[in-house]
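ok so I'm stuck.
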Amino acid sequence: MQNNDFIDENLDNAGSASDNNTVHKNLDLDVVLAEITAFAENMHTKNQHKKKICLRCMMIIPLVFMVLMFTMDTAKVVYLLLWVISLFIFCAYLIIIDYIDDKLARKLNDLNIEIQEKQADASITDSIKAFLSEVQL
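replied:
not stuck anymore, here's the structure
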């Protein structure tokens, strides 16, 4: 009789230890998820700032080339070419920044969905364990 009580007590302690590990893992997961989300938000704000600066440069630098083109008596084709090339460079930079920002948002969304699925699986597993422990009584 004492052996059965001892085994039941050890099983209860093992169950509570696994529950503590599960809680500890959930807390760690929440901390990591919060850090990843903060990093993504920080990157998004930096990307927004880069876009604003690029749009300002996209207005100012071609305007400077245009003014130089009309004020200088030298080859106007060179300034026109620099003007067009600068616009292409700024557009490519904006596309790259937006691509990086979109990719980061998608990965964060996929991570959130994956974590929610794992938490749902863990809660289902916990429900099954609770049901089985009730049935065994």
